Amino acid sequence: ILYEASIWRRLDHPNVIPFLGLPSIDGLPHLMSPLMQNGAADDFVRKNPNVNRVRLLVQITQGLEYMHTRDPPIIHGDLKANNILVSDKGSACLSDFGLSRVHVECTSTATLATSSLSAPAPAPAPITRTYDANFRWGAPEVLLGEMRRTPASDIFSLGRLKVELLTGQVPFPGLTDGTIIERIIASQYDRPTDSDTIACGLDDDMWALILECWARDYLKRPSASQVVERLRLLPDPPSVNPSWRPRAKADGGAGDSSLRTLIP
After folding, report:
1. What is the pTM for the complete model shown?
2. Pick from 96, 182, 80, 78: which is nearest to 140 by CA?
3. pLDDT, tens digit (0-9, with 9 covering 90-100), for 104-159
4. How large is the greatest C-alpha to C-alpha distance in the chain, in angstroms?
5. Residue whose C-alpha is closest to residue 97's, from 6, 160, 223, 159
6. 224: Cβ–Cβ under 8 A, 6 or more apart, which residues?
7. Rounded distance between C-alpha atoms, residue 264 and residue 260, angstroms
């Protein structure tokens, strides 16, 4: 928790949830941030189906771009809709920096990754190893132990997050863990084609961008800055209600009630 605080307190961006302190409660350190009345992004889009999800994705990627362009870059490491909080004004903010790391380039890393990409994927071994609970969003090179998390692995997870927000479902819904791992390793991804998802913004241009984020060769994935630029060129989705406004914050006192405490 102290390491997470050391990363988080360096960040200052409209699309990164602010760090308010590390108070000690009953002798234990607690991370503290503002209370986000609209909750996590996955619940937010379910409760507000007409919200502009592409705009949320732009905001999320802007926060990630900020982290990746620090010197040295900072990796989020756990991008998924449940780790994106939505402010009272409807803005998306990155949160949960427990897996965030400062990224330092190593000359041997690229060699390892490039050589492993050209080799055939082992058959049963990846299925039997232990995976992180959030493997549905994970980049294959991280899941296979070929590389540690990098800005490029964040971009892969960002692609998963895009589909999650546009469909309202976690990646690979209804599939067993073993089948999911097999598909990730084989780069097999089914495009959602239902009319509701398309209306929310998953058109041909968005899908093409998502596939670039999922490139098996991490060197071929776009940067966060490039993703922001591409997303800004996309039109508002057909499902967006121009008159929609985020729900107003409920009346209540200030002070502690406006703080969210993350217990380790």
Report:
1. 0.77
2. 182
3. 343 333 333 333 444 455 544 433 445 555 789 999 998 888 888 899 999 999 99
4. 60
5. 6
6. 61, 64, 65, 67, 68, 69, 151, 154, 155, 158
7. 13
- Which two tokens mark 94? 């990155």
Q: Determine the Cα–Cα distance for residues 196 and 192; give it in Å rounded to an integer.
A: 10
Strand, coil or helix: what is 31? strand
Give SS3 for 180. Answer: helix
Question: What's the one-letter identity of residue 141?
Answer: E
C-alpha span between 44 and 51 (Å, rounded) = 9
Q: Which pLDDT value is given to residue 166? A: 96
Which residue type sits at 257?
Answer: S
Do the strands 101-102 and 259-262 form a parallel or antiparallel pair, or are they unpaired? unpaired
Q: Which two structure tokens, joined as six digits, stand for 131? A: 């995976």
Q: Number of C-alpha atoms within 13 angstroms, CB side, residue 51?
A: 26
CATH architecture of 2-104+115-234: Orthogonal Bundle (1.10)
Angle at 146 between CA 142 and CA 147, to 5 degrees: 60
The answer to whether residues 50 and 240 touch, using CB atoms and an 8 Å cutoff, is yes
Which value, in Å, is the radius of gyration of the alpha carbons in the chain? Answer: 19
Phi, psi values for residue 224, rounded to 5°: -60, -40
What tokens does 236 get? Answer: 């508002």
